[in-house]
Amino acid sequence: MRVPKVANDRTASPWWAKLLGVVIFAVIVGSYTPSMLSGSMQPILIAFVVIGTYVSIGVIVSFSFIGVKDRHVSLGLFPFGVRRFSYPEISKVEYVEHVDTSDYLGGGWKLGQDRSTVILWKSGPALKIELTSGKRYIVQSDGAAMLVEATKKKIATSGS
Questions:
Q1: Is CB count within 10 Å lower at the N or C end of the chain?
Q2: Contact 73/66 with Cβ under 8 angstroms?
Q3: What is the Cβ-side half-sphere exposure of residue 49, based on CA atoms within 13 angstroms?
Q4: What is the C-alpha to C-alpha distance for residues 110 and 95, in angstroms, rounded to an integer?
């Protein structure tokens, strides 16, 4: 059974990430020859092709997302990772007016200087979630203000 979303937002990967994925895939396909599948390098080559294909396709179709649902908040970078937090785990949620990709050396799933986990593909407004464990997550979203309000409302009504 699918859990209904209260609010959600997603940001697609930028053009350069899609181009990088295509280039990685082209290098893998272009360097492959059937004669390479013989000999002792066969397991390494197969692993290289499988991992390289996953990464290239993943970069092409990737997007960052955040969803405020009935029982939890989920955030992540598809298809590379998802984190889910129940409302009692969240100690604080706030709106960040602007996060800049240059502060984190580009987009993606990053570790900030303050040890917070940052998920962003572009500069802009963000949602900052602090957990009772002390971990912090910052997710860039054009709908950050709406997501903060939806999360605060769910925390208030969840009885935590």
A1: N
A2: yes
A3: 14
A4: 19
Average pLDDT, rounded, for the chain: 81
DSSP 112: -
As a whole number of angstroms, the distance between CA 7 and CA 110 comes to 24
Q: Is the pTM of this model over 0.90?
A: no
Asked if 111 and 81 count as a contact pair (C-beta separation under 8 A), the reply is: no
**Rounded Cα–Cα distance for residues 152 and 129 (Å):** 11
Going from the C-alpha of 7 to that of each of 18, 69, 120, 145, the distances in angstroms are 27, 7, 18, 11
Over residues 103-146, the pLDDT tens digits come to 877 777 777 777 888 888 788 899 999 999 999 998 888 888 99
Residue with tokens 């692993």: 47
Question: Which sign does the torsion angle of CA 113, 115, 121, 126 carry?
Answer: negative
| Close Cβ partners of 54 (under 8 Å, ≥ 6 residues apart) | none
First to last CA, the chain: 25
Q: Which two tokens stand for residue 6?
A: 């209260």
Angle at 112 between CA 124 and CA 11, to 5 degrees: 35
For the chain, how many residues are written?
Answer: 160
Residue type, 11: T
